[in-house]
Amino acid sequence: MEAVMVNIIGTNNIIEACKKYRAKLIHTSTDKVVQANSIMGATKKVAEIMVKNAGFVSVRFGNVLGSAGSLLPIIQRQLDKGEPLTVTDERCTRYMMTIPDACELLIKAADIGEPGKILVMDMGEPVNVLQLAKDILKKSGKEERITMIGLRPGETLTEVLMTQEEESTAKRVDQFWII
Prior knowledge:
Elements: H1 2-20, E1 26-30, H2 39-53, E2 57-61, E3 63-64, H3 71-80, E4 85-87, E5 93-94, E6 96-97, H4 99-112, E7 118-121, E8 127-128, H5 129-140, E9 146-148, H6 164-169, E10 171-173, E11 176-178
Parallel strand pairs: 1-2, 2-7, 3-6, 4-9
Antiparallel strand pairs: 5-8, 7-11, 10-11
Helix pairs in contact: 1-2
């Protein structure tokens, strides 16, 4: 219910307020909308469609390193507690971006975003999460202790940034795609 309240009803409230006060809206979305197989991904997809239909701009983020709930703080907590690092699957990959990248994407969206469009940053190749965990353990000087926990409900092995249809119509501007 929280995802519906925040991502759908909350987005609708923001859209209505922006229309009323003639404000610009840059909506923050996620790569999880592309293969929406969780409540969060599905509600963010609905919000993205609402924003598009209202004539505002969305940005689609990958994993923002260092943000609340991102991979690095979780790994750091596990390291601090002396716990094994948990990894979903040895094949698991994720797109990663830094906080400055995320800020740049938002600023660029405000600058070049067109009504009803989605901006996606080219984040290069996805990162193998197991290799990232190994690299962090090596740099920390701690012994390699990694536990495979398997996919949780709504989780995917790999992420994609755009659907095939979106890729076929996306326009490249600098290091961004406009859908």
